[in-house]
Design a protein that fits this description.
The complex is a heterodimer of chains A (172) and B (763). Chain A has 172 residues and is an alpha+beta fold. Chain A folds into 2 domains: 7-79, Ubiquitin-like (UB roll), CATH 3.10.20; 89-157, Orthogonal Bundle (DNA polymerase, domain 1). Chain A contains 5 helices and 5 strands. Chain A has helices spanning 25-32, 89-96, 106-119, 125-132, 142-157; strands at 7-11, 14-18, 51-54, 57-60, 73-75. Chain A has a 5-stranded mixed beta sheet with strand order 2-1-5-3-4, covered by helices on one side. In chain A, strand 1 (7-11) and strand 2 form a beta hairpin. By secondary structure, chain B is α+β, with helices and mostly antiparallel strands. Chain B has 3 domains: 3-56 and 466-604, Aldehyde oxidase/xanthine dehydrogenase, molybdopterin binding domain (Aldehyde Oxidoreductase, domain 4); 67-157 and 220-296, Aldehyde oxidase/xanthine dehydrogenase, molybdopterin binding domain (Aldehyde Oxidoreductase, domain 4, 2-Layer Sandwich); 312-465 and 611-758, Aldehyde Oxidoreductase, domain 4 (2-Layer Sandwich). Helices cover 25% and strands 25% of the residues of chain B. Chain B is built from 18 helices and 30 strands. In chain B, the strands form 8 sheets. Chain B has a 7-stranded mixed beta sheet with strand order 7-9-5-16-13-14-15, sandwiched between helices. A 5-stranded mixed beta sheet of chain B has the order 11-19-18-17-12. Classes of the chains: A alpha+beta (172), B alpha+beta (763). At the A-B interface, helix 2, helix 3, helix 4 and helix 5 of A face helix 1, helix 16 and strand 30 of B.
Amino acid sequence: MAISLPMQLTVNGRLHRVAEPQGTLLDLLRDDLALTGTKLVCDRGECGACTVLVDGRTAYACLTLAAACDGTTVTTVEGLGGVDGSMNDLQQAFITHDAAQCGFCTPGQLIAAHDLLARHAAPSESEIVAAMSGNLCRCGTYPKIVRAIQAVAAARHEPSATSATPGVPRGA
Amino acid sequence: MARKAKPKAGGFVPTTVEVEGRTETRIVEVPAFEPAPWTTDTPLHIVGTRAPRMDAHEKVNGRARYTADITRPGMLHAVMVRAQTARGHIAQFDASAARALPGVYDIMGPGDAPAKTRLFGTEIFYHGQPVAAVCADTLANAERAARAIAIGYNDLPFAAIFDDAAAPDAPLVKPGGNFAPQSPVIIERGDITAGLAAADIVITREFCTPVQLHSALEPHGACAEWEGDRLTVWESTQGIFRTRGDVARALDVPQSKVRVIKDYMGGGFGAKNGAGPHTYVAALFAKRMNRAVRCLNDREAEQVDSGNRPATVQRVTIGAKKNGTLTVIQLSADVPLGISGWEGGPAQIYHELYACPNVRSEERFAYINASGMQAFRGPGYVEGAFGLEGAMNALATALRMDPLALRRKNFTKKDPRQGRPYSGNALLACYTEGAERFGWHTPRAPQSGRVRRGVGLAAQVWPTGGGPPSYAHVRINADASVDVLAGTQDLGTGARTVLSQIAAEAIGAKLAHVRAIIGDTEHLPYAGNSWGSMTTPSVGPAVRMAAMDAQSQLFQAAAAMLDTTPDMLDARDSRITVRDTDRSMTFADVCKRLGNVMIYGKGSRGPNPANTAINTFGVQFAEVEVHLDTGIVKVLRIVAAHDAGRIINPTLAESQLEGGILQGMGYALTEERILDRRSGMVMNPSLHDYKIPTMADVPQIDAFFVAGADAAANHTGARGIAEPPVIPTAPAIAAAVADAIGAEVFQIPLTPWRVLASVPARR
């Protein structure tokens, strides 16, 4: 890939010019653009916490060289909702279904789920699990994440159904 | 709001607090008043509801700031240099090449740190021990310089496993000897010989459990900044005040000049209970360079040197009458702690879960040349449950008795150690409801083929009373919004939400008007560490009392405005009504007329009830599928029934149960630190080689609570819940695997090769 300097890339809809891209896309996002929602956990593509979208495809920002992102469009967790902090339906469903405990893996989970739903409007549970099993969560929030994704898929499919209605958890 | 008069208010009394199995006596002051307890029948409107997690917005839009996200103007980065030998002395240390590299500001090596930090001595006790640190303008420059430091070691013999440390000719693991000062720890009741003689059946088994790594996704880390002689530390910690105490002591600074802030936190699980080497390194470099400095563990350091659940070997002898009545339980356990740690061994649960007159445990705690243990969710009880419940299941088989019936038979109505009554105990209801939802008594079809199913169960007890000291303030702002101030912390557990719900309930405000402000030693009243499942039962009552105090002041002001007396007022949804009338005012109306009058309520956690055992109980049932040719275990479902008294927020509490179960499942099947005996090195210090559960491993989980408020535990009726669910999962899964393969299993994790080795030859 030819690298031209300075490079530029679009992050969450805003164009950025980078004079000297050094390190990874994760460094660029967190250190230069102050987009700290994307997290560093393993630094070697094992955990999914740094998952972002590059030109609409998921990428581990910790394994992606910043210089390789010239001319790309990047979406991070900060770009899922509005600049004002408003949320999309997926983010809202994560809240409704308590799909974030400590929240450290959540940005990567959201991006992976966003990508899944963009590719499969109505994923089965096994498709959800297959798509999401590269995103680790130590708090064990997985069951709630599955529920949140299912709720969004159902609501998008059937707009009258609302993803804001949690299923009554067992033991209620 | 009813109150009991407390004539001795203001005095100090001793009270008993159980922290992770350790009983402490503390001197605490008696609160100004003791609120009447919220009983099961008390009508509550906000407590007990499934309110969304109050900090979830920030977590899903990327705006939640964790310690690793803190940046300060001019901030520098520090990295640790770690020992490349398991035991020895530093013979040569040359940082000259590193100092000459671009961006390097400072290096600390042997002898450069104050003695009380215990950092950077010349003697090496384990592979990965911090021996030096580098401070540079960027993380990359710091890491480059760290690699450029030349260190030579004179190696010494070492012991990396228990047997090597305990051998007669063992090398000295560290000065002071190879066994912990209290070792062996012997706890005994009754008469073991008599118990053995009284038994119709006696079985003996040996169980092994692995070293489990906390693996919180956010690493240990700190950012430190000095302003004159005042130090601010942002730290990912379960205890802001304990961290403040550690830093003040290590750096010889008064506590009033150290401020510790923890806002969001990416998990702790027991490993983040105070300041660590990263904290001291950040603070020391910050002082030396007069710049803010951030120091974070990288993933390898986090897996190698940030705490662990120690391994155990448990030799269990257990005997019973033909009808299942236990007559004797005997445990002999070996626990390698690492280079440091406390005596959090497996014995406690052997003494607490069942009625048995004769119980003896002997635990040996050895130091080994490996990173030290730290508390890990349910410390000791998780390890112990695997041995005790494994032995109970083997006993049930030997007795040809249903393992659930065996547990019922040995249910204890009183704390079996001290004979104290329980504040509440619904374990029998857990057995009944759990068995029903699992279908435990449903006959199963005979198994054939190469994939076999099996079922198993295990029970749990854990001390969850919490206790003083713990304080809270509640203030009502001029616009009637409510601040809850408490020096506690939310690890991802939901403490912010739970405390807000308690305050909103007690003051009669809308939950949306209430905000919990936590995690800052400079502005908040003291609360203890978030460990031992203690935050809700410790801080919750203090918050409720502070909210009641604030409400009382608000009522006094409102009574004059409403032409009545305070005792005629009620509050709900931020509206004050005069009882039996249609007169009312909103909180906002009252506050508007008060202007900037500050209503400020204070609360504290009162003493624990005397002579009372406060525990959380539960049972878990597991169904697994085992492939007899590959040894691969798939957990199909877990049913978990727990009794934790009142549940403040069922959704968040169920998240705790699910999370505990999944950590327990990892412990049962995949999680094991591999330490090479010959080099002392951790061989799997990554999230690829150390396997925590993924979404693909998740079974169907039906986790729920039985019982209602425990008004005898504290006046909110809530006990702790964070740790109990991780305790019985592994033994329940192991029992299910044993059932599936038709042979007992004695060692976790149940990796495919261990399972294969256990499958009977003709199976």
